[in-house]
Amino acid sequence: MDSVQSPDWPVVPPGALAGNSATARYGGPAPAPLHPAPQHPAPPPPYRPPTATPTATGTPRAKPPIPVKILIAGGFGVGKTTSVAAISEIVPLTTEAEMTIAGIGVDDPGQRSEKTTTTVAMDFGCVTIDRSLKLYLFGTPGQSRFGFMWDDLARGALGALVVVDSARLDDSYPAIDFFERAGLPFVVGVNAFDGQLAHDLGAIRWALAIGDHVPLVQFDARDRLSVRDALLVVLDRALDRATRDKRA
Predict the structure, then answer these.
(1) Do residues 220 and 192 lie in contact, with contact meaning Cβ atoms separated by under 8 Å?
(2) Could you report the per-residue pLDDT of 204-234, keeping only the tens digit for each?
(3) Coiled-coil ranges per the record (predicted)?
């Protein structure tokens, strides 16, 4: 049989259609391949940690501080509202109401107190510790009839400062019992009215029946630096608990 010679197709210039392509020969689009090559999606870009948002001047914007919720609790008239007002860097939110004769025999602020108002919901203030940490302070009402609010106020808190009047230790038992049952780290702060304590700290620890693992400090609710030092003890206690829970 005579051999068959394939036609000599012209050489295709770079970028031009092939001379024996369907488009060149029939004027239509090239037929789709019977088995198209699988299309693989492009791999995702590598992870890069978020960076600070630049400001209009081009300098990185500082990250906002981490919010930490701290409770300031205790009995009636022990200095909770005063503590929040002394340390807060904003005008504190208070829910103070005038005490009336209807509260006689119900709300007892103590003989040394000149208190004429009482907290009926909560106190709120905040203080920035440093660039990375900001404390949000929630003061609880001290009367037993407002005890139903404590569970809501304690939700999300990392620790508490239980304020104590050394002359009225009986008023502190409900607050200490609450935080012991809740398992929330707390510090007992004895408010030194007029700079004096009715009992020394050792006797107060014994009377309150708190263990050695619970810090007991003396502070002045009217003095900003004194309240700051007490709150730093609360923060240290909360961080210590968080560290131990993470290791466990």
Answers:
(1) yes
(2) 999 999 999 999 999 999 999 999 999 999 9
(3) none
Residue 58, Ramachandran bin (φ over 0: left; ψ between -120 and 50: alpha; else beta): left
Other CB atoms within a 10 A radius of the CB of residue 98 amount to: 8
Give me the CATH topology for the region 76-247: Rossmann fold (3.40.50)
Provide the residue ranges of all domains of the chain, joining segments of one domain with +: 76-247
Instruction: State pTM to two decimals.
Output: 0.67
Q: State pLDDT tens for residues 50-70.
A: 555 566 666 667 788 889 999
How many angstroms separate the CA atoms of 185 and 176, rounded?
11
Using the structure block, give the residue that is written with the tokens 């106190």. 123
| Total H helices, total E strands in the chain | 6, 8
Phi-psi region of 77 (alpha: psi -120 to 50; beta: other; left: phi over 0): left
Alpha helix (H) residue ranges in 69-214: 80-87, 150-154, 173-182, 201-208
